[in-house]
């Protein structure tokens, strides 16, 4: 069975979607560990409740980003994952870390990339008055929120929307598309080649599947 390590920093609602998919035999693999850089992340409890090893690795206990990432690499590699899944992991990764897991590390970002890289995506989309917003799953590259996109889901932005309502709409889509992308990877259907991501051998469009 393919092995998955999930990195989180907070609530872990995307982690929960992956745990649920696994419980229905729809993940294509097994989550073998969940690691958080915050010891009080609620997602660690979700992991323990599901019988998954939960590891807290507080980044503040390390002198530098390099030292933290080095420790993180060690913990991850102990679990011999086929795939590393970033699910609300709010740390910028060093090039060494990204290179180590290149082509086998996915992230979910709450915008229709390449729009709104970085933080506060919902507030910025609202402020711009866009009519469409959403979420992207992408392979992680050294460019922050800039790696090749695999799949996106869009939501309509209405005049009534607030930052909260938009976040809720987008998150409901996150929970749908992340388990699907993970499954594609674990079943060997999704790979990152020299020309970009392919699904079943067919190159994906620049902004992924919608
Ligand atoms: C998710 O909405 C995810 O898209 C976002 O953090 C949230 C984590 O929620 N990720 C980023 O902003 C990455 N820069 P969760 O802990 O409930 O899954």
From TrEMBL:
* UniProt cross-references to Gene3D superfamilies, sorted A to Z: Formyl transferase, N-terminal domain
Q: Which reaction does it catalyse?
A: N(1)-(5-phospho-beta-D-ribosyl)glycinamide + (6R)-10-formyltetrahydrofolate = N(2)-formyl-N(1)-(5-phospho-beta-D-ribosyl)glycinamide + (6S)-5,6,7,8-tetrahydrofolate + H(+)
Q: Which GO terms describe its molecular function?
A: phosphoribosylglycinamide formyltransferase activity
Q: What is the lineage of its organism?
A: Bacteria, Pseudomonadati, Pseudomonadota, Gammaproteobacteria, Oceanospirillales
SUPFAM superfamilies, per this entry?
Answer: Formyltransferase (SSF53328)
Q: What positions does the domain Formyl transferase N-terminal occupy?
A: 3-181
Q: Which residues bind (6R)-10-formyltetrahydrofolate?
A: 65, 90-93, 107
Keywords assigned: Purine biosynthesis, Transferase
| Pfam (any one) | Formyl_trans_N
Q: What cellular-component terms does GO give this entry? A: cytosol
User: Pathway, per UniProt?
Assistant: Purine metabolism; IMP biosynthesis via de novo pathway; N(2)-formyl-N(1)-(5-phospho-D-ribosyl)glycinamide from N(1)-(5-phospho-D-ribosyl)glycinamide (10-formyl THF route): step 1/1
What is the name attached to this protein's record? Phosphoribosylglycinamide formyltransferase
- What is the protein's species of origin? Onishia taeanensis
Amino-acid positions noted as binding N(1)-(5-phospho-beta-D-ribosyl)glycinamide in the UniProt annotation, renumbered to this chain: 12-14
Which biological process terms from the Gene Ontology are attached to this UniProt entry?
'de novo' IMP biosynthetic process
């Amino acid at each position: 069975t393919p092995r998955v390590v999930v990195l989180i920093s907070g609530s872990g609602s995307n982690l929960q979607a992956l745990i649920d998919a696994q419980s229905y035999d729809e993940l294509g693999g097994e989550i073998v560990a969940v690691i958080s850089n915050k010891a009080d992340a609620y997602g660690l409890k979700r992991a323990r409740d599901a019988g998954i090893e939960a590891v807290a690795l507080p980044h503040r206990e390390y002198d530098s980003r390099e030292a933290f990432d080095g420790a993180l690499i060690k913990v991850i590699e102990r679990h011999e994952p086929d795939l590393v899944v970033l699910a609300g992991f709010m740390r910028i990764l060093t090039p060494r870390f990204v290179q180590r897991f290149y082509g086998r590390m996915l992230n979910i970002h709450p915008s229709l990339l390449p729009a709104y890289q970085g933080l506060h995506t919902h507030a910025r989309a609202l402020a711009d008055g866009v009519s469409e917003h959403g979420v992207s799953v992408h392979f992680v590259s050294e460019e922050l929120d800039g790696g090749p996109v695999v799949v996106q889901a869009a939501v309509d932005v209405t005049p009534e929307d607030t930052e909260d309502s938009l976040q809720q709409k987008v998150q409901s889509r996150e929970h749908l598309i992340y388990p699907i992308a993970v499954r594609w990877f674990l079943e060997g259907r999704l790979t990152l080649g020299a020309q970009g991501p392919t699904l079943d051998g067919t190159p994906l469009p620049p902004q992924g599947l919608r």
